[in-house]
Predict the structure.
Amino acid sequence: MEVNAAISLTKQNLPLMPRFGMHMQLPGSFKQVNWYGRGPEENYIDRKSGYAIGLYTAAVADKFHDYVRPQETGNHTDVRWVAVVNDKGQGLKVRAKDTIEFSALPLEKTDLYDFNSIPGHSAEVPMKDATTLRIDWKQMGVGGYNSWHDKAHKQYLIPADNYSYQFTIEPVIK
């Protein structure tokens, strides 16, 4: 299946975009993630130079980093493809037309972003019997160059604008 994602703005002077992408929830049996991109640890557009492009494999459960407070975690940049599979090696593979960013986490996306109910500590975030796969064109940088309150440099921000990206989703069958 080919996916063409696009955003066309109808208003001007909008705030910065934290990311442009999409996500899907997969069965919890999809517990392994394989990818060709930067790794093996999480990396971001402004925190990627120390991570080599290569082939990596990890358990989805290991992609959630236990930060002091729940926050963005598990991102990977410069990804050509990512596959999420079960213990039989079956699942799905996403191939980027150019490159994408992704994360695969054992939780629902709202578990990190619902500020009305988010736990105070990462260890309190409930892991689910589900895998959330996020497929982004780009996510803004994390910033924090001399204080964790500093925003990312301008080249690592995503201004509100028209964007598009493409990828294919194919089954992985063993």
The CA atoms of residues 45 and 173 lie 32 Å apart.
